[in-house]
């Protein structure tokens, strides 16, 4: 009778975990509460899959661990009339091999699948349909549409009078055509920033003197929020932008509108405020005197 009662206690954590998993029927739960959706870009599906699978595996490990801890606490508890201390050291070679090998396998598997997905995301597919150069600057963004030779000069987000929101209509906007291969060339004008389109589930650091790149295909029309994800100074929280994924016709109309408004050309590195970098012609005083 006692063994049956202990068995019920041992399976309780598993029953609770299964109930929680079965209750995860909303879209937010199915994708691990990540923003966006699996069809936002050509990469978001694999990112969500890696995230959710990792949590499922770790939940199974957690349930087994919790179950064993509770089982051991119940089975080997001090009983009425017992005195003294139990054996303090006892070897069990199979158990020790198990809890050494299993975590090692998990770590290697997590590394392998992460490296596989990251390599796919970071690989240049070549022949981009759209090539945009993004400059991060304290505390806004400049977008150069290199193929079309037009630009958008962004300004820092403006706080509303309530102090809890910003003027969304005044944010810099990056326009991208849907279902087209995009290459983003990422630069910084001053300090380290980070280019993050939240629903795209990927971000890239902007490092002075170094060019980084992002490759993706936006596959869902919509408006997405972007921000700097690297603390860069006093107004870091106001370094915001939007991404509008639109049809090819709407994209062409936007480009033509920029050209007609006089925003033709490129806002290049000549506007960088950090001039003490290799190749800028700045005087190196370290070798003087």
Mean pLDDT across the residues is 88
What's the CATH class of the largest domain, please?
Mainly Beta
Number of helices in the DSSP assignment: 5
The gross shape turns out to be: elongated
CATH third-tier fold name of the largest domain: Immunoglobulin-like
**What is the gyration radius calculated from CA atoms?**
27 Å
Give the low-confidence spans.
Answer: 283-289
CATH architecture term of the largest domain: Sandwich
What proportion strand? 15-25%
The overall strand count is 10
Order of helices and strands: HHHHEEEEEEEEEEH
Supply the helix-strand structural class.
alpha+beta
Q: In what order do the strands lie side by side in the largest sheet?
A: 3-2-1-5-8
The proportion of residues forming helix, as a percent range, comes to 25-40%
Can you tell me the CATH superfamily of the largest domain? Cupredoxins -  blue copper proteins
Work out the oligomeric state of the chains in this entry: single chain
List the domain count as a whole number.
Answer: 2
Q: Sheet bearing the most strands, described?
A: 5 strands, mixed
Characterize the structure shown.
The structure is a single chain. The protein has a five-stranded mixed beta sheet. α1 packs antiparallel against α3 and α3 runs antiparallel to α4. It has 289 residues and is of the alpha+beta class. Helix content is 35%, strand content 20%. The chain is elongated, with a radius of gyration of 27 Å. The protein folds into two domains: 109 residues, no CATH class; 142 residues, Immunoglobulin-like (Sandwich), CATH 2.60.40.420. The chain contains five helices and ten strands; from the N terminus they run ααααββββββββββα.
